[in-house]
Automatic annotation (TrEMBL):
Compositional bias ranges of the Polar residues kind: 233-242
Residue ranges, annotated region (Disordered): 216-242
Presence of the UniProt keyword Transmembrane helix in the record: yes
Protein name, entry field: Acyl-CoA synthetase
UniProt KW keywords: Membrane, Transmembrane, Transmembrane helix
Length: 242
């Protein structure tokens, strides 16, 4: 069994990697003059695949066995969405909205549920054996800071999906800038790609701050004390019979 001391990577490294890829996606969209479906799908595809691979690697490198399901689910959905966004026939306005909306709603709900269960687990003591309560500190059962970050990121991701649902893909508005002596067109895909860029920027800042923030206990230390909890429950003083 891998103990906390022998682990090279921790939750903060996963957060920092996700923040880096989100920041890269935000910068590419911000400084790109082309906000077409092809460009938006390409940026989203790279972001989703890179994020998904980080989460899938974290299954073995970071999380203990009982806490791997959120990373597995989020990683699988992100990689699948990224691969779909990379297909040329799906790099259309409709394809962009469908792929990003489905990804945002599914991954957001999963991450929100995982974070909520972690926060709820901080207040509840589970039984590690019949009649024996878990004696570990609450931070080792489910780190509150990590669960709170998952709730926030999950909620932001769901908001992205909901916001894209209200954007009309066929929307087009012509406007003129007199100083530039030029006429431009604001389209639905421009708004959709811009919303994803704004989402990526917010997630990058939040996860970057979370990754650099000090925390009292990393979740990886939970494995090292699992075997000690049952033994500590039996160390009750016995009275000598007179």
């Amino acid at each position: 069994m891998t103990s906390a001391d022998s682990r090279t990577f921790a939750v903060r490294h996963v957060q920092l990697a996700r923040a880096a890829f989100a920041a890269l996606a935000a910068l590419m969209i911000t400084f790109s003059p082309d906000h077409s479906a092809a460009v938006g799908s390409a940026v989203f595809s790279g972001f989703a695949i890179a994020t998904g691979l980080v989460l899938l690697l974290a299954i073995w490198l970071v999380y203990p066995a009982r806490r791997r399901w959120p990373a597995a689910a989020l990683g699988g959905i992100s990689v699948a969405a990224g691969m779909a966004g990379g297909l040329s026939p799906l790099r259309t306005v409709t394809g962009y909205f469908v792929i990003v909306i489905v990804w945002a709603l599914l991954s957001g709900i999963i991450e929100l549920i995982a974070g909520w269960r972690g926060l709820r687990g901080d207040r509840e003591r589970r039984e590690i054996a019949p009649g024996v309560a878990d004696a570990r500190p609450a931070a080792l059962v489910g780190p509150r800071s990590e669960s709170r970050d998952a709730v926030v990121v999950g909620a932001i991701t769901i908001l992205l999906g909901v916001a894209l649902l209200f954007v009309q893909p066929a929307y087009a508005l012509n406007y003129t800038i007199e100083e530039a002596h030029a006429t431009f067109t604001l389209t639905g895909i421009t708004i959709g790609v811009g919303l994803f860029g704004g989402y990526a920027a917010i997630v990058a800042v939040y996860l970057g701050i979370a990754g650099f923030s000090p925390r009292p206990a990393e979740s990886d230390t939970a494995e090292s004390v699992t075997a000690e909890a049952p033994a500590s429950a039996d160390t009750t003083p016995q009275k000598d019979s007179a």
